[in-house]
Amino acid sequence: MIRLRNVVKTYRQGRAAVPALQGVSLDVAEGAFVSVMGASGSGKSTMLHLIGGLDVPDSGSISVGGQQLGRLSDDELTLFRRRKIGFVFQFFNLLPTLTAEENVALPLLLDGKSLHEARPRVESLLERVGLGARRCHKPDELSGGEMQRVAIARALVVDPLLVLADEPTGNLDSKTGEEILHLMKETAEQARQTVVMVTHDARAAAYGERIVTLKDGRVVGDLCGEEGERP
Amino acid sequence: MIMALRRVSLRHLAAHKLRTLLTLGGIALGVATVVSMRLMHESVSRSYERTVEKIAGKAALEITNGEGGVPEELLAEVRQLPGVGVAAASVQGFVPLPGHGGERLYVFGVDLLADQELRDYQFGAAEAAMDDPLVFLAQPDSIALSAQFLERIGAALEDRLDVLVSSGVRTLTVRASLDVRTGPASLFGGRFAVMDVFAAQRLFGLDKRFTQIDVGLADGAELGAVKAALERRVGGRGIVEEPRARGQTLERLLTSNRYGMTLAAMLAVVVGVYLIFNTMMITVAQREREIGCLRALGMRRGEVLRLVLVEALVLGAVGALGGVPLGYGLARGLSQAFALSLGGMYMMPVDVPEIRLDVVSAAAGVTLGLVGAVAAAIVPARHAVSVHPLEALRPAAARRVPPRAYGRAAAGGVALIAVVAILWMLRDVAPLSRNVNGSLAILGLLIGASLIVPAAVRGFALRVEPLLSRGLGPVGSLATRSIVDHIGRVAITCSAFLVSLAGALAVATWMSSFQRTLSVWMDGVFSNIDLVISSGGRPLSNDTTPLPGDLVAEIAALPEVARVDSVRIARITHEGVPTNLIATDARLWADGVRRLTMLDGTESEAYPRLLAGEAVAVNEAFCARFRKKRGDLVSLPTPSGELRLPITAVYFDPGFGDMGIVLMDRGLYGRLWRDERVSFIEPALRPGADRELVMETIRSRWGKQHALFVVTMEQFRGEADQLLNQTLLVAYPLVVIAIAIALLGVVNSLLASVLDRIREIGVLRAVGATRAQIARSIVIEATIIGLLGGVLAVAVGSVLGYVQVDVLFRGMFGMTVLYRYPTAAALFSLVAALLLAAASGYLPGRQAGRIEIIKALEYE
Fold first, then answer.
1. Residue contact B474–A83, C-beta within 8 A
2. Are strands B209-210 and B70-71 parallel, antiparallel or unpaired?
3. SS3 B682
4. Residue B547 CA from chain centroid, whole number
5. What are phi and psi of A22, to 5 degrees?
6. Rounded to a whole number, what is the largest CA-CA distance in chain B?
7. How many separate domains does chain A show?
8. Between helices B731-756 and B17-56, what is the axis angle to 10°?
9. How far apart are CA B381 and CA A165, in angstroms?
């Protein structure tokens, strides 16, 4: 499903070059739930962004669902993100001017569907994440957990191949965080979606069936199957 | 404070280079327009003063009487007066040079033997003829040209030069050259010639008259006493003035023009102030966290206030320092067209002005920039002061202004407009002067409309959202919601756009109304006329030369010609102010062939009195300038002595703009001014006559001799329209600048919008919005601003135009102007507003599309 080969990414901060990934290679099977762990600055978010096509590597290759991302133009990459990938962010990143329903529908609306066409799918997803009654509320009228549920619904609305979650519980209390992780795992299993979740919380990481650990831009650990500790 | 300014404010400005530059550009343009207008008026007035001074030389007093001149016998009388040291007569005027397309020469006829005491002519050293002026004078066709002009037309000594005067084309011989470095020969870019005064008298057809007599005082004589003695001696035959006073006549004439231009220039400044206000509001809004942080760290409210105001002052100072040289450059670029247009309008010899940047103009520009910047920063500064340290750290959504506030502002705006509307309607009975009342109406209207804008923007954006959402998907609704969420910023931009476009529409209204007025006037005055004949240039050009009176009879004798009217338009002086005298055949009025539109007085009473030479008629501008009314006496100096006649009627004649006109019978004029020449001959043809054939006959018979221009009435009217457009053309660059400043405001506001929405843009890009979709959303936002600005501008501009027509024309110039709505300009404004705003969204849109997704998602 996901295939990274010798991926290198270096950021520039002023005059200094900061290596984020230094030759990462990784394979993720279809339908897998992979947690990526590591300290701040280990390169885990960078890896997620590169897999999601939000950024491009300096060298190396990345393929997702058989599609070599390096060969896509900006517009093709955008369409790829729109139709094949769902994002869940730490700070929810909902648009403050849109209602919950409109936020969830956004990828479909951007793809040319009307809200009327998108509504059945959106409503069913909002029901599934437990927000059926709050679909007309704007983000500033929702709690942190509710906002993240909306974000999960948005990530799932296009029925993506891959869900990428960047610290999805980082901004939530532990109880709400667990609810969110349950929800993510449950929905991904139902739809046989691949999930890559970045976290530095070991309890959250344990939801993954595989835990990849990064340090200084390199993969230093890869625990599979029952080796992963369940809460 | 300085530390905070340097580390906090200036760094913020430096970090947002494009926005800072746009703001500085706006201030600079506003300052530049005001400075350039001031410089142009100053320099044109100074240029005329310089012309008069150079021509006056060392003369302490001058005796003049407009175009009619002063009688020859006066010279001898003046010379005998005690206190008069030297008196020298001159004959002067422009003559067209038929052989040198478009060139004109200022011919100065002087008594070379007496004149050297008053004026300085440096003749070229090698000319034998000028070694002895008598040799020069012995040949009446002698002319001395400036060396510069000789070089320009490629002529040498002893060459012949054709000039066009009222008796036809005459040939002169160049017998000397003048040094152009000093004296009057340096005037008019060297287009200057000296000849003998009596030869010039014959050349110009001034029978026993001089254009002016210059007087130098005897040693020890007292100016006041000599002036009084001269005034007694001259009586009604001319006006005795000091050259300096005469030099200021143009400035007196320009008062209204200056008011009109300042009104247009202020438009640019008002838009500039909006722009500073906009920028400061954005800056403060974006730095609320920073300001909250500074407050938390111990910065007092007063210090925050000072910080924002000083930041505005820095912007104002830098913008103004750029604006002053820009204004200087603008004035240099426009000065020639401006001088030509004024010279033509007021029929005065205005030299090409030399634009000099004086301290006062520069200081006025800088002060304007500073005051404007501080005034614009007061509200943002108060807003910054009100930021609570804790509040500033809350998310932006929690600090939205409640919609009720916009409703209250709109209600205030409507109330303000209602108040100024009532004041305006009561303008004839109100204690305020018409101009103050009009200016209040304009100001109240603009402020009132600006107060309504936020509610209008919000209401409009909410209403079009479903439509845009259906048509353009989420991109459309995101654009409208961005507007609703940032009403303050959008409303200011929209207001600036509104003010500048409304100003443009108001200028279009003056033009349209003035055109209609001229058209209606011409329908009346030029009915029953087929052709207009002039000499030296097309009838409305500056190059025309009077025609001999006997040509009127010769043309009237043509079998196809039913009737000929002849008009003499002469520049005279009334109470020291240049005024036009129109002399025409009063019998045509008495016989009912031609008619005047009476504003005060009746045709049945006026025409017989005009025909009998018992009275004159005047136009409204004359009444406004000299505070006269029907029945008052008008006193005019003539070469035959003072003429005192009552005003029998006030008639409608906007033909010379705000210049006064005295109308009389041509017979009376001819006798008193000893002038039988005519300015235009206007034949009416018999029914069935072939107009082209008659024109050809006139051209072939008299055309060459008198350098005739024969045009049809339709051509004449077309040229009148064109001339009007040219005269008003100077106002256009100002309007264009105001619109440019407003567009800078739109770009500025959109750049701020991109910054405000940077995270939103990052999310949109992450979930699949293409760069084009993002750019489109910004362009839609700009288009909505443009559409709303345009619609409101058309509404406000229509009222503004109506008020300004009344203030400018009726209030300042005392003229009746028939209002006409500029439909084409209004439609154009609307379309232009939309297109320009949409285009101005392109750059910020592109910038938004290029935002790096990762950075945008991390943006705080």
1. no
2. antiparallel
3. strand
4. 31
5. -120, 70
6. 101
7. 1
8. 170
9. 42
Residue A229: the pLDDT is 43
Cα torsion B150, B151, B156, B157 to 10°: value is 50
CA nearest A87 in B: which residue?
A: B767
Sign of CA dihedral B315, B317, B322, B327: positive
The full DSSP string for B123-191 is B-TT-HHHHSHHHHHHSTTEEEEEHHHHHHHT--TT-EEEEEETTEEEEEEEEEEE-TTSSGGGGGGG-
Residue B568 in tokens: 């003499």
Distance, CA of B441 to chain centre: 22
Tell me the nearest-neighbour CA distance from B833 into chain A, angstroms. Answer: 27
Q: Cβ of A75 under 8 Å from any chain B Cβ?
A: yes
Q: Within an 8 Å CB–CB cutoff, is residue A206 touching chain B?
A: no
Q: How far apart are the first and last CA of chain B?
A: 26
Decide: residue B635, CB within 10 A, 0-12 exposed, 13-18 middle, 19+ buried: exposed
CATH code for the domain of A185? 3.40.50.300
- Compare CB distances from A107 to B397, B767, B770 and report the shortest one's residue: B767
Separation CA A29–CA A48 (nearest Å):
16
H or E element that contains A193: none
Cross-chain CB nearest to B766 (options A87, A102, A111): A87
Interface ipTM: 0.85
Query: How close B760 gets to chain A, by Cα (Å)?
Result: 6
Judged by CB atoms closer than 8 Å, whether chains meet at B478 and A109 is answered as no
Which residue in B476, B759, B392, B398 sits closest to A138, CA to CA?
Answer: B398
* pLDDT at residue A27, as a whole number: 94
Q: Which of B791, B830, B796 is nearest to B450 (CA)?
A: B796
Longest CA span, chain A: 51
Average pLDDT over residues B124-144: 67
Asked if B768 and A78 come within 8 Å (Cβ–Cβ), the reply is: yes
B24 exposure class (CB count in 10 Å sphere: 0-12, 13-18, 19+): buried
């320092």: which residue's tokens? B321
Q: What would the 3-class secondary structure string for B37-85 be?
A: HHHHHHHHHHHHHHHHHHHHCCCCEEEEECECCEECHHHHHHHHCCCEE
Q: Give B576's DSSP letter.
A: T
Please tell me the predicted confidence (pLDDT) of residue B180: 67
B-chain residues near A157 (CB < 8 A) = none
Distance of alpha carbon A77 from alpha carbon A56, whole angstroms: 10
Which residues of A are less than 8 Å from B768 in CB distance?
78-79, 81-83, 107, 110-111
Closest CA relative to residue B319, chosen from B273, B383, B369, B282 = B369
Q: Which domain holds residue A26?
A: 2-227
The answer to whether B859 and B758 are in contact (CB under 8 A) is yes
Tell me, what's the pLDDT at A8? 95
Q: Provide, rounded to the nearest whole percent, the portion of chain B with pLDDT above 90.
A: 14
